[in-house]
């Protein structure tokens, strides 16, 4: 079983994504003026996309500028990991503010999944930065059409922790209700917020991740948003690209052996990984509440909670999948039954019961 992370402070990262013309830049322009971002490094694709003239203090170097609000903006040079490492190396040195959080704005056509995987798995980045949340901006005017025709738009909505509806004042109430309903089907666990001209309370977008909250039981329940999934199962409604997205929650009654958790993580990431857009769970591992979080085949290191959120000690997991039916996921959960018998006889490498349990678990995967 993977190790539980230590107490080293990591800088929270908020990913701001959304389709072309959705309103990301308008939102970012508003946020850059707010005192809540005074301790923030903002990574954007191009300075020209953001109106910086009236906010500019000085140019730190060709890729970085200091803002009147106290934050620093930089453009992505090469890959994201390289940009984050560069920021980390310069943090607090030679006039660089000692920023305490990071905001990343993606391009409109960006698939957010590779960025999330970088934050979760890069050997340097994951030691110093932690995903705080995904904020997806949806154009209320054109959002429905984009969901119909562009898979990137669907994935942006499906991976979100917060969905910001821009230009909501420009559409008829009935059209807005329909769009909100579709977004709820795609991702019932994401709060939906409205932002006209980019105006939004920054506190709604930052400090929403489990590590930012302190990994407390009640905070984990709010992070998981299990209640939102109970009444929502996505079904095909002839909506094009979003048809293959499924959202659901599962419960496991019996406690899980650590080796059962490891077997499940290894198997589902290997055989079903590409279809896992987002997985969040609180698992009962030998009586202890353990949090799991995955994006495609990448599982974040399990994290121990300080206490259970409530008196319900069942394991609970929410899934947002792409091209994977609920029956396939539920079949994979058979791996949680793995409870190995300790082999004490000299010369015997594996107990027959262990082999039988392993083969039973693997039979639920298309190998």
Quick check: average pLDDT? 82
Cα end-to-end separation:
23 Å
- Principal-axes geometry comes out as globular
Strand content: 15-25%
* Residue windows where pLDDT falls under 50 for at least 5 positions: 1-7
Element order: H for helix, E for strand: EHEEEEHEHHEHHEHEHHHEHEEEEEHH
Number of helices, where a helix is a run of at least 4 consecutive DSSP H or I residues: 13
Strand order of the largest sheet: 3-4-5-2-6-1-7-8-9
Explain how this protein is built.
With 367 residues, the chain is an alpha/beta fold. The chain has helices at residues 24-32, 80-90, 112-121, 125-128, 143-149, 151-158, 173-186, 210-213, 217-224, 226-230, 258-271, 326-332, 352-362; strands spanning 11-18, 40-44, 56-61, 64-67, 72-75, 101-105, 129-139, 162-166, 191-195, 245-252, 276-285, 288-295, 298-299, 303-304, 315-322. α5 crosses α6.
Question: Short summary of the structure?
Answer:
The protein is of the alpha/beta class and 367 residues long.
Features:
6-stranded antiparallel sheet, globular, alpha/beta, 367 residues, 15 strands, single chain, 9-stranded mixed sheet, 25% strand, disordered N terminus, 31% helix
Could you outline the blueprint of secondary structure elements for this entry?
Blueprint: E1 11-18, H1 24-32, E2 40-44, E3 56-61, E4 64-67, E5 72-75, H2 80-90, E6 101-105, H3 112-121, H4 125-128, E7 129-139, H5 143-149, H6 151-158, E8 162-166, H7 173-186, E9 191-195, H8 210-213, H9 217-224, H10 226-230, E10 245-252, H11 258-271, E11 276-285, E12 288-295, E13 298-299, E14 303-304, E15 315-322, H12 326-332, H13 352-362
Parallel strand pairs: 1-6, 1-7, 2-5, 2-6, 7-8, 8-9
Antiparallel strand pairs: 3-4, 4-5, 10-15, 11-12, 11-15, 12-13, 12-14
């Amino acid at each position: 079983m993977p190790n539980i992370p230590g107490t080293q402070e990591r800088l929270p990262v908020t990913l701001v994504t959304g389709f072309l013309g959705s309103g990301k830049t308008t939102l970012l322009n508003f946020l850059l003026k707010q005192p809540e971002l005074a301790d923030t490094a903002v990574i954007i694709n191009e300075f020209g996309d953001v109106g910086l003239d009236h906010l500019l203090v000085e140019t730190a170097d060709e890729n970085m500028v200091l803002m009147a609000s106290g934050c620093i903006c930089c453009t992505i040079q090469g890959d994201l990991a390289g940009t984050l490492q560069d920021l980390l190396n310069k943090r607090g040195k030679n006039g660089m503010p000692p920023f305490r959080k990071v905001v990343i704005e993606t391009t409109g056509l960006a698939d957010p999944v590779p960025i999330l995987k970088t934050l979760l798995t890069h050997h340097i980045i994951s030691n110093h930065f932690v995903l705080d949340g995904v904020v997806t901006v949806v154009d209320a005017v054109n959002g429905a059409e984009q969901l119909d025709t562009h898979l990137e738009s669907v994935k942006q909505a499906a991976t979100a922790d917060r969905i910001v509806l821009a230009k909501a004042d420009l559409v008829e109430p009935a059209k807005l209700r329909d769009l909100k309903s579709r977004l709820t089907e795609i991702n019932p666990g994401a709060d939906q917020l409205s932002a006209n001209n980019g105006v939004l309370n920054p506190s709604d977008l930052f400090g929403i991740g489990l590590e930012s909250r302190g990994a407390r039981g009640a905070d984990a329940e709010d992070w998981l948003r299990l209640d939102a999934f109970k009444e929502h199962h996505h079904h095909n409604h002839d909506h094009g690209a979003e048809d293959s997205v499924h959202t659901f929650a599962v419960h496991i009654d019996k406690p899980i052996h650590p080796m059962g958790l490891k077997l499940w993580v290894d198997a589902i990431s290997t055989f079903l990984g590409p279809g896992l857009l987002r997985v969040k769970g609180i698992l009962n591992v030998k009586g202890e509440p353990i949090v799991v979080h995955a994006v495609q085949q990448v599982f974040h290191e399990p994290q121990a909670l300080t206490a259970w959120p409530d008196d319900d000690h069942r394991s609970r997991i929410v899934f947002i999948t792409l091209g994977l039916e609920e029956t396939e996921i539920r079949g994979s959960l058979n791996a949680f039954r793995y409870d190995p018998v300790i082999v004490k006889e000299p010369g015997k490498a594996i107990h027959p019961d262990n082999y039988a349990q392993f083969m039973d678990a693997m039979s639920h995967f298309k190998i």
